[in-house]
Design brief:
By secondary structure, this protein is of the alpha/beta class. The protein has two domains: about 25-265, Type I PLP-dependent aspartate aminotransferase-like (Major domain) (Aspartate Aminotransferase, domain 2, 3-Layer(aba) Sandwich); about 265-395, Aspartate Aminotransferase, domain 1 (Alpha-Beta Complex), CATH 3.90.1150.10. It is built from 14 helices and 13 strands. The strands form three sheets. The protein has a seven-stranded mixed sheet, with helices on both faces. It has a three-stranded antiparallel sheet with strand order 7-6-11, with no helix packed on it. Strands 10-12-13 form a three-stranded antiparallel sheet, with no helix packed on it. Helix 2 (about 25-35) packs antiparallel against helix 9 and helix 3 (about 45-55) runs parallel beside helix 9 (about 250-265). About 50% of the residues are buried. It binds pyridoxal-5'-phosphate (PLP).
């Protein structure tokens, strides 16, 4: 199930939802202006959003889409994935990452993650490469970038396409390089809970002109180049179809919100970073808790604040911990249920838990706390108090 039920949580007075989009009057008037303009689907706002986004991360091409799932799908299409190929995907991520590989009748080869960052383990990825491997997906879990140097080396050595799942990553970086500019292609998400939102939406980013061209065509039914112009004064009714594509284009309503959100991306990030520091100061003092790491070469986007429980020091499990927080009006979530444990993947591939010791152990003890720019200091304090209180009541 998508995050919507647990992620956004109920909007009840006195409760702190897991996520809340930061929508201000500028966002609202940007959207209203587009609606009033009479041009509501893909058009000038979408092109402007693409230009601004590409400029912001420093990529040559950006294609605005209906979701990050669509962006991952088009990324795999652009690198020429075929039935029977393999794509290396960490098991500790959202199900979309494996699902898009199945769209091609290709195989998602699931691998374990690193214990500190929970991002794909380069050693596990290297060990998973076969003659059929075509791509490697680097998921920047929670907004901490995966270890891109060794992953790039593996991709280069074996001729694989390195695809960044940057759904959580904006505006993070790795060794001074912006998220989404390190792999061959990258997919960003603008889902309601993400670091900038368009309600639903995504962006595919690449420096590879051929991939960009293919993705743009496939995003709109496989219609030949610039078909979208047929909707504008500069186009005609005539178009050709060069491949059986998809309907993944972004609307101008979404793009207007995206542009307005992008303009305050840094301000929103700064607030989340302050909240992360406050959480880590408070929870770093509590021996039953483990706070998230940020490696020195990484700027964390703080999409998620993933706290871990030292379960042997507590007499509750993670699920009960979350329930106690909920009773106190604090809505936490879990990222992620390892993909190999889902019925479909278990029945299709039969991966044993023992193949993913880190993901399985960490899944038992992770919880994601509310962290969003609209949180007040009082709300942050309430989360700290609630978490500390639950720990105090359950020391083993
Ligand atoms: C890591 C990751 N990748 C991809 C996606 C898919 O994003 P979207 O909902 O925009 O399709 C998500 C969504 O939550 C995600 O968490």
């Amino acid at each position: 199930m998508h995050e919507i039920t647990t992620a956004l949580g109920p909007d009840r007075p006195g409760e702190i939802p897991f996520a809340r989009p930061d929508i201000d009057e500028d966002d609202i008037s940007a959207v209203v202006n587009v609606i009033r303009s009479g041009w509501i689907t893909t058009g000038p706002e979408t092109r402007e959003f693409e230009r601004s986004f590409a400029g912001r991360v420093g990529a040559k091409h950006a294609i605005a889409l209906s979701s990050a799932t669509a962006a991952l799908h088009l990324a795999l299409d652009a690198v020429g994935l075929r039935a029977g190929d393999e794509v290396i995907v960490p098991t500790f991520t959202f199900t979309a990452c494996a699902e898009v590989v199945r769209y091609f009748d290709a195989t998602p080869v699931l691998v374990d993650v690193e214990p500190d960052t929970l991002c794909v383990d380069p050693a596990a990825a290297r060990a998973a490469v076969t003659a059929r491997t075509r791509a490697l997906m680097a998921v920047h879990l929670g907004g901490h970038l995966a270890d891109m140097d060794p992953l790039t080396k593996i991709a280069d050595a074996h001729g694989l396409s390195l695809i960044e799942d940057a759904a959580h990553g904006l505006p993070g970086s790795y060794k001074g390089r912006a998220v989404g500019t390190i792999g061959r292609l990258a997919a960003f998400s603008f889902y309601a809970t993400k670091t900038i939102t368009t309600g639903e939406g995504g962006m595919l980013v690449t420096d590879d002109a051929e991939c960009a061209e293919r993705a743009r065509i496939m995003s709109l039914h496989g219609m030949s180049k610039d078909a979208w112009k047929r909707y504008t004064g500069s186009g005609t009714w005539r178009y050709d179809v060069v491949a059986p594509g998809f309907k993944y284009n972004m609307t101008d309503i979404q793009a207007a919100l995206g542009l307005s959100q992008l303009a305050k991306c840094d301000r929103m990030w700064q607030r989340r970073a302050v909240i992360a520091v406050r959480y880590s100061r408070a929870f770093g003092e509590i021996s039953e808790l483990e706070v998230p790491v940020t490696r020195p070469e990484v700027v964390h986007s703080w999409h998620l604040y993933v706290l871990r429980l030292h379960l042997h020091r507590l007499d509750v499990d993670r699920d009960a911990f979350i329930e106690e927080l909920r009773a106190l009006g604090i809505h936490a979530s879990v990222h992620f249920i390892p993909i190999h444990t889902f019925t479909y993947y278990r029945e299709t591939y039969g991966y044993p838990d023992s193949a993913f010791p880190v993901a399985c152990a960490e899944f038992q003890r992770v919880l994601s706390l509310p962290i969003y720019s609209g949180m007040t200091d009082i709300e942050v304090d309430r989360v700290i108090e609630a978490v500390s209180g639950v720990v105090s009541g359950h020391r083993a």
